[in-house]
Automatic annotation (TrEMBL):
This is AraC-type DNA-binding protein. GO terms for molecular function: DNA-binding transcription factor activity; sequence-specific DNA binding. The keyword Hydrolase does not apply. Residues 187-285 form the HTH araC/xylS-type domain. It comes from the Bacteria. Keywords: DNA-binding, Transcription, Transcription regulation.
Length: 289
């Protein structure tokens, strides 16, 4: 399972990279890079894959990713439909841990920043007031010139370091395992599963997508993702169910079958295992927000 290695470069006058993306297909694949990444989804929705974590992303999300942590933001189909014209607006910052100098993080005043950058190897989802402040500052970093760029990114890193509401995304035991001859396999598995999760996906079917035997596929997927393919497929289906429950246009039973579950009892079981709530409780929690 080999994500694509991207070389994130800066020009000769910038110590870090900051950009705004308005198209859904920028680096729209499973990839990694040596730079840390901070991303703010101003507009857009879809499914995010980070290490061994799978969850929905939405407008307002802010995530910090550590060096060489594989990831993939797959936008929902409507963002690729020219007839729908759903807008995408994403701010992305890439920076090396030592972009301010090798000794900068060793200063006593910077220990909280150093600590959070070390934790970012698990991926960090930011919430609360800090998330709002970071979302406000990131566009300013892109617009700033000279020393103000450094000041703004330091404000962002300080805000992240002192954020009281944050969640790690990747399990502690996750270790990227990159083999050159497997580089496109996980991408094919992800794409096929997301496109066909409503259907019954047979083992031989998904193994053919990965271009390996069914027996080899089971071992391969469990070794690389630390979960079975059935668990992965159910996470995708439950993630889609969460979106539909929030939209509140279908009944729970309709959502069950629309998301590829063929048994209402199994739907409840897996939904509760993955989210910690029943479908109805999940829907009620969002309706109160």
């Amino acid at each position: 399972m080999k994500p694509h290695l991207l070389n994130v470069s800066t020009n000769s006058v910038d110590s870090f990279s900051a950009r705004r993306d308005v198209m859904p297909d920028v680096n729209n694949r499973w990839h990694y890079h040596s730079a840390l990444e901070l991303i703010y989804i101003k507009k857009g929705r879809g499914t995010q894959f980070i290490g061994d974590s799978i969850k929905n992303f939405k407008e307002g999300d802010v995530v910090l990713l550590g060096s060489n942590l594989p990831h993939y933001w797959r936008f929902d189909p409507e963002f690729f439909d020219e007839n729908v014209c759903e807008p995408v607006d994403v701010y992305v910052i890439h920076f090396k841990e030592d972009f301010l100098g090798r000794d900068f993080l060793d200063l006593p005043e910077n220990q909280e920043i150093k600590k959070i950058l070390m934790q970012s190897t698990q991926g960090i989802q930011l919430e609360g007031v800090s998330k709002e402040k970071i979302a406000y500052l990131m566009p300013q970093i892109i617009e700033a010139k000279g020393t103000m760029r450094i000041i703004r990114i330091l404000e962002v890193l300080t805000e992240i370091a002192h954020c009281g509401e944050r969640n790690t995304l990747v399990s502690l035991g996750f270790k990227p395992n990159f083999l050159e001859n497997e580089k496109d396999r996980i991408q094919s598995i992800y794409n096929y599963t997301i496109s066909n999760y409503k259907n019954k996906i047979e083992l031989k079917e998904i193994a053919a997508v990965a271009k390996i035997s069914p027996n080899s596929f089971c071992k391969f997927f469990k070794t690389k993702s630390r979960k079975t393919y059935t668990q992965f497929l159910n996470e995708i289906r439950v993630g889609q169910a969460c979106k539909l429950l929030i939209e509140n246009n279908l009944t729970v039973k309709e959502i069950c079958y629309d998301c590829g579950f063929y048994n209402f009892t199994s739907f409840h079981k897996y939904f509760r295992e993955i989210t910690g709530k029943t479908p109805l409780k999940y829907q009620q929690a969002f309706s109160k927000q």
